What we know:
Blueprint: H1 2-15, H2 23-52, H3 54-58, H4 60-80, H5 88-116, H6 120-141, H7 151-171, H8 174-204, H9 210-242
Amino acid sequence: MSxxxxxxxxxxxxxxxxxxxxxxxxxxxKNVYSTLSVGMIISCVGxxxxxxxxxxxxxxxxxxxxxxxxxxxxxxxxxxxxxxxETLHSRLGAFFLFCFSTGxxxxxxxQALSVISPDTIPTALLGTALIFVSFTLTxxxxxxxxxxxxxxxxMSAISLLTTFSFMNLxxxxxxxxxxxxxxxxxxxxxxxxxxxxxxxxxxxxxDTDFVWHTLDLFIDFVEIFRHLLIILSSKRRRDRDDD
Length: 243
């Protein structure tokens, strides 16, 4: 029994062994994921405010446009503002504004699903969390950083997907639409691995901009969640139609 317990402790210690990451990288990742956690909470607050505020619901179209403008503006501010101690608070504020506006922008979709299929939302959120954690650990436990070479392929895939999405506005093919959803989900799952390994390599090369790195991962999480929401809700709708 004691031998089994000792073996179990050793296995767990091996699984969660990050000693191949140097101290600076570990501290940087703590900054990234702690900031990401706060951003997730702020995003949830934004989505919740939309659910309980009738005024926000009455200006849905304007709110979605405003959310897009705020998200774009805050991300551009983070990108064009150099990371330093002097700009840290303003860049963090811009990131949290990005998270809040993203949550607000998700409000109409979440409200519709809360009426049509309310159990889809927690299922998609749990699935997104599991996917994100799994692919993050895969990236961190893989000592050879060959996933960083996926960047060009992933960007090409995003460009092709965007092109097909635009074309489907006129074709209106359900098959293309469903393919876009599943391919898009796979692409952003791969982006989690790519961005995680890229963050590690950038920090090893002296890049300490954890705000921008957090923004990359936040976008990955949000896109996985969005794709899962639509996929699950579509599946539930088809199941109801079949019944």
